[in-house]
Specification:
Helix content of chain B: 40-55%
Oligomer: heterodimer
CATH architecture of the largest domain in chain A: Sandwich
Shape of chain A: globular
CATH class of the largest domain in chain B: Mainly Alpha
Radius of gyration of chain A: 29 Å
Number of strands of chain B: 2
CATH architecture of the largest domain in chain B: Orthogonal Bundle
Number of domains of chain A: 5
CATH topology of the largest domain in chain B: Cytochrome Bc1 Complex, Chain D, domain 2
CATH class of the largest domain in chain A: Mainly Beta
Distance between the termini of chain B: 46 Å
Strand content of chain B: under 5%
Structural class of chain B: mainly alpha
CATH topology of the largest domain in chain A: Immunoglobulin-like
Strand order of the largest sheet of chain B: 1-2
Largest interface: A-B, 87 and 74 residues
Distance between the termini of chain A: 110 Å
Largest sheet of chain B: 2 strands, antiparallel
Structural class of chain A: alpha+beta
Number of strands of chain A: 18
Number of domains of chain B: 2
Helix content of chain A: 25-40%
Order of helices and strands of chain B: HHHHHEEHHHHH
Shape of chain B: elongated
Amino acid sequence: MHEIHSEIGHIEKRMVMNEKTPAEYGGRGLSAWLLSCSLLMGGLGIATTSYAEMAEGFAEGSRPAPPSAEKVEAGKRVYFTKCVWCHGVGGAGDGPGADRLWPRPRNFNSGTFKIRHTASGELPLIDVDLFQTVTHGLPGSAMPSWEGILSEDQRRDVLAFVSTELVKDRSWQDTEFEEFHVLQLDTIQPVPPTVESVKRGSELVKELKCIECHGLEGRGDGNAFNLKDDWGFSIQPADWHKCWNFRGSRQDAYNVKNIFRTFSTGVSGTPMPSFADNTTVENRWHIANYVASLCERDMDVDIAGGNVTDEIAAALVAAQPRGIDPLSDKPKVNFVVPSKFVEGELPADEHDERWKLIERRIVAMGGQITHKPRNFVNRIDDVWVQSLYNETDITFMFRWDDRTKSVQKDSVDWEPYEVNLGDYGIEEQAPGGSKFADDPEHPESIAAKQTAYQVFNDGIAFQFPIKWQELPAPRKPRYFWGDEGFPVDITKWTADGELKAYQGTGWDVDFDDRDDFTEQMKLVKAEWKNGRWTVIVTRPLKGDYEEDTYIELGKYIPINFFVWDGHNGDVGRKMAVSAFYYLVLEPPIEKETYIYPTVAAIGLVLVEGWILTRRANRRKGKA
Amino acid sequence: MTWLKLVEGYMPMQMISELVICILVFSIINYSLKRAGMGLPKFWAGIFVWAFVNVFYLKYRIYPPIPFSVRAIYGTVSACGIFMWVSGSQQEWEEFKRPIINVLDAKTGMTKFIRTALLILLPIGLWGFAYNSFLPNFDEPIELRTVHPAPPATTKVHGKTYVLQTASNPYRINPEGKYDQAYSNAHIVDQSMGRLMKDVNSAEENPWDPNAKGYIKHVREGGEIFFQNCHFCHGDNLNGRGLWAFAFNPIPANFTDAGTIAQLQETFVFWRVSKGGIGLPGEAFPWASVMPPWEQHLTVDEIWKVVMFEYWHTGYYPRTWE
């Protein structure tokens, strides 16, 4: 009975602190209020029953000392120089930049933080969790790493300010209601990522229903499109194949400990719960090992819809991590896309063994932000490309993760070759800013609108300069569909099954059809499966020299890529784009490659003989 | 080497001091070993120093990686240096070449073995090296691009012509409302670590102070534009490390670097922002840059404000024509 009273008392205290009543929150806000109440009950549940104490791998943590007034003041200076632009004056995650960001900047007020060592519902450790977040950033969001920019003291100062002034509904110093049960990540013995462990993990993710949100193969494509966070903003499950985008990856993408931590403590404020109380530490390691093994490595391992056999598990364990570029904290990009010669027919599907002859290259994608309508959220941030060729044709296999298969259902008013869709109401996200500051759910923000776009076709396109042989180096056509002087050869596939050849002469000029070439191209495969598109396109190496790009051996041919995600409202110029890459058809090795080194080696043998003879003669002379 | 990070902006200093420390440590060890009567053979010391500098340090320590051609130059120069060091006196030179002569003469079983092995391995190694260099090489080509091309005399933005020599930022004003760079220079962020505003409690220094007006208020308005439009590429700290920075090539400019806006007149930046990548002259690869022509997205006032914010936030001031 006493506990219930204290609960109510606490809620009242909180309401006073907020200076708002449910009525003031308004209709929409009521649910938020109820939610915060239920969250509070959850928090109390921990405090009274201390289930977290019993959860395996946790131990009682200590309460941080309150920061000095000087540190808070110093932190305020950091906050208003660096952080306020996204997180806002009151720390409600509603700074000027917020409405064009997805994920939306954190609202500090309720003290809900995603990445923690503390048990579900508890406040994070300031010196560990929040400090690491500021130090390493949150990849996959706009939060950068502040290491090297702010000194360690400055990072701690700003946390002193945020934790005391901007976290308004809870307090680390609240001895009555705040407890700290900390995951003992440093002392728990990890389970090595063996074949058995990975296989067991693949079974556990099914038993624990992880795949319901994260998808059969873990690409975040489960039945989760409409998930929302505590504030009502759209949110998506993690794609396990891109560990460098895990918020908690701490600039150490392949480290399984980060996954173990997130799985053990949950992601507060989101539908991702903590699994600490119903999963043993050992099983948590199996799951973490499996999830980590799915992150893209040197080999593309087919995990057969998550039905991981011993062979698949062995392949997953054997594959090596990709090199991570410390500048971007993402896989290293090589701007050369190689293509290898194969005898006979080109592959008919993605299972052809000959794809293993050629390295797959990652193409990094950014939002198209050059011309209206700009795309501030590119849900497709990379595409894997492979290419093979024979005497007459070249084939490209594109594979990219897309949580949603998007095929346009309603008919549209424009033709496929049209690019200026502003007249048809395709607009970019408004900046927002202070305009909607009074509405806590920011209904006009990009994070609130993510699930509400009209659905268009997914698609991919790539372009080459036409007559690139005549380009005065290093001149290229403009990356964005060419220009008047230097037109481009565009190949575009859309999810309605259309594969078309166009000519582009500028970012705002409608495409010209190249019907003759369209007839010669072949869509070998286009399939969306378990959160991934596989699109294989074959086209002739040569067409009409005046219109179609001649693809020649051993030359660097500029190429760049465009991707559309229909559920992101991508259409026309709203898309993701890449920088210029180079397609290179690797020619067969010539005879000279063997002859000259042999001549040089024989030459060296002669020189050796001469030196030895000379030395021997000299010694004889001396003697 | 993840335990010792190269810090942006301090990298050259860090590298020089690291090398100096390494040389000092090596000299001390070398000297004390000599004193103890166990001096390192000159031959091996030379090889060790060369390998340390060229193979270990330049190849594995420095990031972003240095191209092979540049390392080859360093390798040659350091080899010359080491030869000068080991041939300082006739005695030292004799000492240096003794191991080589010993192997050539092959008087003991050991040197005989080394000589035979070398005689066989050297031609094979040369063959492999030559074969590799004859294989067609498809590395990323290096394209040299002009970062700061010569500006035009005038630029026309939203129908109005601006003469770059005479135009000035209408928001760079003192409390009297007059153009005053000396005033604005006094209120940019502090240049020390973190580049923080000078006083968070002053309406003259803190753009977010409710009483901020004039120059510092325009800085905030510029910052709002920046964080709604520019940070995606140029980054939250204006250091060219935005969300998509490395998806694009050329990568976005780093304004915190002393070589970008700090070297330029404000009108140059105004021209660059207004016209974007597509407005660059040919030597600056206008076809590859994704920088928007911001006149398509922003008003002239907004462009002036965002330029001013960039100077404020990095703690730099524009160069003047004088």
